[in-house]
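ok so i was messing around last nite and threw this chain in just to see what happens. nothing serious, just curious
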Amino acid sequence: MKYVTASLWAGALALGFSGVAHAGMQNGPFDFTVWSGEYQNGVTDIANLASMPTITPTATFTYTGPIDFVNNLHATSTNNNNSAGQFFGTLANNITNFSSPNSAYTSLAAFLSGDQLSTAGETGSALNTYMRITGVYTSTPGETVTVSHDDGASLYVGSTTVISSAAPTAEVPTTGILPTASSPTDFTLIYVESNGAPADLVMTVPEPAEFLLFGSALALLGLTLRGRRAGQKAV
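result:
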């Protein structure tokens, strides 16, 4: 029995240490750059998702935690239901190193309470917000990543486009295959919030098969040890 137990421990540890998949992509840290402005000021358009704005960013900060931001409040006639604070929610507590390169905000609190992500419409004087989120990840072959968003989102690894989706006015889950990365690799997630609330951005990477096997090995190990102890008591 001790040889079986040792083998199970070895298998479980091997699986655990081999599971480098999507490290960093689930909880960061991530670097955010945020631009807000009218469409004609060159911030972005849903149809031009990957273009980089030329104006000075309204905010930059570091965020550690899940990319899981949802504001389901529908904008009213006064457009007061689409602030950065409502978008980030309690996860705003995970923001550090805040700065406002264009001096629009004196503090993180001012940004959260005062920055309106977007108003209805995508042209003319309508307000849009553009976010560039960067981080690093590792992955095993064939892993998928899903980005649910309202409005547009794109995910890039170097020159590879993993996800590219422009879909305003409705939440859309978009799935792509991550390039294999055995060592930390840079990625960029671009998000456009347009057309008013609701607004959401959620990125998920399913647990790979080896983690499921790791859990199964641990469960089997627990049953084996329990059976062994029961046998010892019977003796």
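not much to say yet. The two ends are 15 Å apart (CA to CA).
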